[in-house]
Structure formats: structure tokens, C-alpha cells
Amino acid sequence: MGGMAGPLDQRLAAVVGDRTAKLLDKQLDLRTVGDLLAHYPRRYVKRGELSRLDALPLETDVTIVAEVLRATSRGLRNRRGSMQEVLISDGTGTLSLVFFNQPFITDEKNANALVPGRRGLFSGKVKLYKGMRQLAHPQHQMFTEEGQEPPDPEKDPEGARRWEETPLPIYPATASLTTWKIEKAIELALGAITGIDDPMPLEVCRTAHLMGFEAALRRIHRPAHDGDWIQAKRTLRFHEAFLLQTALLQRRAVRAMFAATPRVPSPGGYLARFDAALPFELTDDQKAVGAEILGDLAGEVPMHRLLQGEVASGKTLVALRAMLVVAETGGQAALLAPTEVLAAQHLRSIAKILGPDLSAELMPTLVTGQMGVAARRKAALQIITGRAKIVVGTHALLSDSTEFEDLGLVVVDEQHRFGVEQREILRRKGSAPHTLVMTATPIPRTVAMTVFGDLETSTIRGLPAGRAPITSHVVPLAAKPRWLPNVWRRAGEEIEQGRQGYVICPAIGADDDEGDLLAVEDGAPPRATVAGVLADLRTQPALAGRRIEALTGRMSGEEKEAVMTAFADGRIDLLVATTVVEVGVDVANATFMVVLDADRFGVSQLHQLRGRVGRGGLPGLCLLVTHAEEGTPALERVEAVAATTDGFALAQTDLELRREGDVLGASQSGGRSQLKLLRVTRDGEIIEQARATAAALLAEDPALDAYSALRAAIERTSDEESRAFLDKN
């Protein structure tokens, strides 16, 4: 896929000089002219519009437009040197700036001096000092430097108006790389790209009403008026969507070139025997999705399907039926799970649902990193000889020591925990195996198209019969600090009735997290830890004499297994755990869950956790305990989860409440996200339009032979994973 290096691929050192290039690389991860020009402005300000100083948040780095009210320089009392004090204003509020030993800063002969009446850009962190707002370590750029003097309004009123109203770009910056330093580097970069090829085919530009690519880059960085950057952003947003969708659809097309072994069930085979013995009827959704998967397996092109469904909707059952079809035709299936607890749980439930006869024939086998050498060797032998037709494991399945005789199906559980690359490592252990990716986090359509755009999608919406409703309540300790003892009393009542439950904590001990937790406000109470809560619960009068144990990711495989078995057998009343129980732990008698510091978990994570209760036909109860204050996004998130058990509605809410990076996740978007302007939360229409356009183009020219600039652009913006995938294939 190699394209000729063009102006955008030039190393920055050749364009902006070695010193600035090193800074840009180290602090902002920008190495080429293309990288720098894709470092788009965060917002725009105008010389004539002063910033609202009284609205600036404390302890935040800001860049603002303000006017100098007064500037003084005086000697220091007890030591040599001088101090410069400057007051800047927006006409209502004021901010003070303090400099040491910089007398030139108030010297009128200096073009960048802070002289009363002059305006400029000021950058720094807003702090409170003796009750006065101050800009710490301030940097500034006055509007009089380097020929930026304002035209005389009397001689040139039009020029003066333009000078005041031209949008000035404000870039994401650092302390040593201010927005105006970045602006100067971009000026040099724009000078180096004259006449670049437009990656967008001409017919696409016309249909989508786009500006030329070079014009869009110039206008987003150097707009003459607001209309320039608005139109440029729209064009560049479409570019991002189009390049991403073209790359994903190409990936799908490359896979379709491989020949897979068709896997067709036979009368009286494993699947027919399994279905005949099932003690319940499959739901309509399970039947429909099962038919789609069987259709894929029978084809000569490898299946690549995303199976999304509610917590406890029976995805594993659907996947198991696919595994049986593959086993019938002599192949093996591998199920990749994100944690040891979940892998062991999957193995147990697969063996149980298969029953003794089918289990003996198919030999479901576990592979995890914490297995002993002898057990690992025995498992490896059963897998390479093909005796084990169903293999369940963690990342250990990806290691070189695990080899298959004939890997025909790869099932990835909770795909959001794995990168694309890990899926590929497992796939390459077979000869074009079929792939089924499962997630219990329902994915809004735009995210599915952006993250899993190379997969077909199936959805199980309905829950199996016998699922009891789960009631959820928020326990808001900020407003009702005395409610916590009631929580433990309620837990005691459930245990009294012979039920079991979970208490979920965000951390194991004082110094560590487990799972991907959300940041919280400074000054929030310390986190609930497994160690602390376990000790506390054992002294609670409402839980006196109850069997309370802990489960964390830090325990050894044997310890986890022992605790889970004891809990499943009813020998533990209350399990204090981290998110290690988030997925797949299935104990029918567990009816209640208390989530402490619920605001530290994401929406989908809370939904997943809650799905662990109410699985055995008994009503479930989930208490979400939080210190989050009324009216904060943190409390809003927790209340959203309590308001509905519809995962698809929550996925949409989650999308609206979260930042983009959280939605795509680092493991999905590669090391450096190629999405700078596109927002899956907002730009659904653009993504749909770009995908349809990309599909039409690839249908005519799958290898993009006629579009070398587009090919080069895809290569430039693809993350390393995507490039590696296309190279390997």
C-alpha cells in the first residue's frame, strides 16, 4: 500500500527547525507536517472581544484576550532584583499577573510590553491568591507585535473593523509550547504544502459539497471570518469519516478474499443432539441471530460478526451452538475472555449446559496464565492434537505455546477489553477461521460503524423467559449522609431470606484501582476499598454472624476459583469485590448488589455489574451509593443507570454523557486516535454518508488504483494496527 512521500509526510525539523520540532514531538506527539496541520484550533477568539474573566475556572490553564489596566515595576525589599505587577481586565473583572526580574516587560519601547490600554493574549493557570484571581506563570502575546498594530480607525475604519473581528486560533498548548508558538510553526507548515494532492475524489467533493483539502487546511488555521473555519471544519470532518470508513471497508474486503472451510451442521450431529436436549425454548432473537451465524458458517468467506446483546440475553448459548457446528466438521473453537474468573466461569457453564456425554466428546479445555506448568502442558497437548474441540482462555491463548490442530472459529467475549491486533493474533493460529465478537455493552449505531465498521452486526434485544426484574435505587450520601446503615440493614434482610449478594468497591487497597475508573473531583471523599469495606462490614450489627469474603483481581487463580466456588455453592453470604465480577459471573441465588462510589464507574460498567443479580428467577435489587453532589454530571450518570434497565437506552445516554476518547477507548482507536474533529456522539449523519460513499467507490475500484492520493492519506491516518493488518494480509 506504499504511497509516495508528499509534502504532508515531511519531517517537521526540515520545516520549523530542529528545536521546535523536538518540542512538538516530545510534548504533542507531532512529527510530520501532516501531524502538525491536523493539530486543529480548540476555539477562536477575536482581538475586539474581551474574555469574561469572572467566569474563568480556578486551577485551569487558560488562554484569554484581555486589556492591560496598569503595569508597575518595583525593587524587592529584602533582596536584589525587581517585581513587575500587572492588572488586566475584561472591562468588568480583573486578573493580576506577577513577574520577577523582567523590567523590560513594562517598557513601552518593547513591542510585546504590557502597557496600559494595549490588548493581547494571556496564557497561564488561574489561581486564587489572597482572595484575588491571579494568572500563575503567565505568558503573553500583545496584538502590537510583528506588524500586528491595529489600523487607525479614523483613517481605515474597514481595516480596523477587520483587525478586531478576524478569528484568532487558540490551539491545545503546553506551558513551553504556547498557542502563539504553535501558530508560528503552523504558518511555516502551511508554506510547505502548496499544491498538495486532494485525497478526496472530485466526484465525492461535488456530491458532499466539500472545499478543496488544501483550502480547508488553510482556512481552519487562518480564517478571515467565522464562515471560513466553520466550512473548513465540515470538510475536514467528512475527510476523517471517509478515510476511516474506506479503511474499515477495505479491511472487510481483504478478509473476504480468503477461503474459509464451510461448516454445515448434519442431521444427528452435535448441534442437533444439543438442541434436542435443551430444557427450554430459544427466544425469537436467539433463533434469528443463530440463523444468521449458521448462514455465515456455511459460506466460503470467513464470518466476521459482532454479536451485541443485553447482559444475560444468552449470547454465550448462541456462540456455543456455533462452536458445535464447527466441531461437527472436525474444527476447533477458541473463546477468548478478558479475565481468569470469567474464563473459568465460561468453562464451567459450557460443560454444564453440554451435559456429560457431549462434554466427554468435545472436551472443553481451559488455558490461563496462572495455570501450573503440568496443567498447561496437558491442555496444550489436547489442543494441538485436536482432541479439545472447545478451548476457553485468557490472553494465554495468544501465546506461541498454544497451537491448534484446526482452529475454525474464534469467539471474543467483551471485545472492548481487547484491541483489534489481539483478535488478529488468535485468527492467524487457524486457516481463515470464522470470527464472532461478543459484547454485553450495547453499542449505538454510529459507534458500531466507527469502531467495528469491519464487522457485520447482530443484536439480541429480548431477555430469556424467567429473568426477574431488577430494581435500582440511588443512595445519595452527599444529601443523606445517614442512609448508609440502612443499606447494610437491607442487605441483612436479603441474607435473612437465604439470598446472597455483592458489595462492589472501586479499589482493592488505598493505593490502587482495578478496572477503568473515572476521575473524580478534587476534595472527594477517599475511595471505598475492598480491604477497608471488608473490615467494616464484619463489624456491622446488621450483618453479625454472616459469612463475608473478598474477591479481587490480585488473588491467585486458585484463590479466586476457591472463593467463586464457595459463593456459587452458597457457603458465602456476601462477596466484597472489585469489577472482577463485572462480566459473566453467574450465581442464581445472588439477588442484591451494593455499588460503593458508584459515580467512579462508567454507565455501561454499572449496567454490566447490575446484570450479575436477578439471574435465577428471583427479583434483583441494586443500590448505587454515591457521594456525588446534586446537579453534577457524576450524579447524573448514576441516576441514568437507576432510571432504566434498557441497555440500548443507556448506551445512548452514555454516549451523550461521555467524552469521545472514552467512547472509542484506546484499545480500539490505536495509539493515536485519527479522529480529531469527528465526534461519533454528534456526527452520525456524516459517518453514514461517508460510509455509503466509501462503499460505492470501493465497489468500482477495490484497490483504489485510480486514487493514489486517497491511498496515501489512508496510510497516513491509519493507526499502526490497521497498517499491520493490511500488510500481513
List keywords for this structure.
729 residues, alpha/beta, 7-stranded parallel sheet, 6-stranded parallel sheet, 26 helices, 20 strands, 18% strand, globular, disordered C terminus
Radius of gyration: 30 Å
Strand tally: 20
Mean pLDDT: 84
Q: Count every helix, treating DSSP H or I runs of 4 or more residues as helices.
A: 26
- Report the sheet with the most strands, covering strand number, pairing sense and barrel closure: 7 strands, parallel
Characterize the overall form: globular
**Major sheet: arrangement of strands:** 10-11-9-12-13-8-14
Strand content: 15-25%
- The structure class reads alpha/beta
Which blocks of ≥5 consecutive residues have pLDDT under 50? 659-672, 724-729
Distance between the termini: 11 Å
What percent of the residues sit in helical stretches (DSSP H or I)? 25-40%
Structure overview:
It is a single chain. The strands form four sheets. The protein has a seven-stranded parallel beta sheet, sandwiched between helices. A six-stranded parallel beta sheet has the order 15-20-19-16-18-17, sandwiched between helices. By secondary structure, the protein is of the alpha/beta class. Helix 14 links the parallel strand 12 and strand 13. Helix 20 runs antiparallel to helix 21. Helix content is 39%, strand content 18%. It starts with 12 loop residues before the first helix and ends with a helix.
Ordered list of secondary-structure elements with their pairings:
Layout: H1 13-16, H2 18-28, H3 33-37, E1 43-46, E2 61-75, E3 82-89, E4 94-100, E5 119-129, E6 132-142, H4 157-165, E7 167-170, H5 179-191, H6 202-208, H7 213-221, H8 226-256, H9 270-277, H10 284-297, E8 304-309, H11 315-328, E9 332-336, H12 340-362, E10 365-367, H13 373-384, E11 390-393, E12 407-413, H14 420-427, E13 434-439, H15 445-451, E14 456-460, E15 470-476, H16 484-496, E16 500-504, H17 530-537, E17 548-551, H18 557-568, E18 574-577, E19 590-595, H19 603-610, E20 620-626, H20 633-643, H21 647-657, H22 660-664, H23 666-669, H24 684-700, H25 708-717, H26 720-728
Parallel strand pairs: 4-6, 8-13, 8-14, 9-11, 9-12, 10-11, 12-13, 15-20, 16-18, 16-19, 17-18, 19-20
Antiparallel strand pairs: 1-7, 2-3, 2-5, 3-4, 5-6
Helix pairs in contact: 7-8, 8-24, 8-25, 9-11, 10-11, 15-24, 19-20, 20-21
